[in-house]
IstB-like ATP binding protein
Amino acid sequence: MTLSLLLDLQAARDNGNFPAILKKYTKPVLLIIDEWLLLKLTEPEARNLFELIHKRWKKSSTIFCSQFRKDEWYQQICGGASTLADAIMDRISYDSYKIDIESADPSKDISMREVYGLDPEKA
């Protein structure tokens, strides 16, 4: 979801219909952002996401699914050197619940490719 969300927001900003697209993502009662911060955010991407997160803040719920621990998120937002990183993390952290999923036995963890019998060499 994150990549398509970022592309949607940036295209809307470029085309001049940012308010309409922002409303589209602000309206749902629950928004799930999967693969949160899988790729580092650029300054324009962070600005767009900040506006979305700020509009949803205290009005609706957002679930962020990430492979990174929360303390690693700063580095993924403009390298952690932007005030946007602070603003985004402030909005996300306030009144939030955090669920860390830890493996009981990492040696038994398998990828979804293995679950579905897909050849990892053809990935």
Notes: The chain has one domain: 1-116. The chain has six helices and two strands. The chain has a mean pLDDT of 87. The domain at 1-116 is CATH 3.40.50.300 (Rossmann fold).
